[in-house]
Amino acid sequence: MYPKFSGFTRPILIAGPCAAESEAQLWETAKALKAGGDVLLFRCGSWKMRSRPDGFAGMGEASLPVLQRIRTELGLPVCVEIATPDQAAALLKHDIRCCWLGARTTVNPQQVAEIAESLRGTDMSVMVKNPVAPDLKLWEGAFERLLQAGLTDLAAVHRGFSTSDAAPYRNRPLWHVAIEFKRRHPEWAMIGDPSHISGCRQLLPEVSQQALNLDFDGLMIEVHPSPDYALSDAAQQITPDEFTRLLSGVRFPTVPAADGSLQRYRAELDELDSEILALFARRMHVSREIALVKAEKSLPLLQMDRWREVLADAVRQGEVLGLDARFVESLMQLVHAASLEEQENVLRHSGVYGGGMDYSGSGVQKDE
Ligand code: PEP
Ligand code: MN
Fold this sequence. Notes:
By secondary structure, this protein is an alpha/beta fold. The protein has helices at residues 23-36, 63-74, 85-93, 103-106, 109-119, 136-148, 175-184, 194-198, 204-213, 240-249, 263-296, 304-320, 325-349; strands spanning 12-16, 41-44, 78-82, 98-101, 125-129, 154-158, 189-192, 218-222.
């Protein structure tokens, strides 16, 4: 029987090699993972989409009978990445009922639509990795296309994002993107993929823990019997023993305690948030008054010297108060952008000039 993501029990642990390299490699990994007893699904890339044409591309369809036997003889359900309708059909032919769309597939709506259509009428469970760029609509769009094709057992996999400043990661986690996805879609399990976020073994414990701390439902980790000799993603794969150690080293948070231990603090936070909002409202009121003066005296809305001063002062004060400079800077940029937008509205409504400008988010670099 295949486990279902809907109605899943935590933690959903998925492990297996990046690529299917040989029958022996698949069996050896699967046996060790089965013996460990923690893994719900064995993962494997049968068709690897390599960035360069000379990269090892996986065993292809030849791996599927092996995977089928891993499921039936070892009792370990398997999941495989698919990128085309033909690959979807091949999985079905071998009675493999769980797959995932990789980051470079999710990014392509046409490809997702064709795969979804090829799975119509089947009970395939599908995980959808985030697209390579932090574009929530593309990620959600893939889910919508699968739903439209009648596939209902879906889960999200967060594998980080390709950015030019990813270091020390291979793919920057930009955790806020996954958090926003989870906020919008509590119905889908969210599985972390520390292997592809980290790109190296050393970061795996830290990234796994971060995902679990953010209430992720599970982890997908690349495991290989001899990682150093792996034909793809060698630096990030770990042995089955290391996988066991990783699992015993991280903390799996329990479901929120019903003992009210957080209640007192939360009441205090709620009160503080109300005060902060009231202060922001007062600040916005003053900002509107200023807009009228600027209109009357024909002054520019943005006065760069003043803005530089406000920002520098806030960062300085924040430091004295023990607040992180990046936080204060982002916060002030947000406040300033909203204030400029409001002043622009005031001017427009008082008929000073017509064009509205969108300052929202200007300069605001959301960070994890
Ligand atoms: C993979 O899981 O092996 C893989 C290729 O991942 P991604 O699509 O996240 O790059
Ligand atoms: Mn990989």
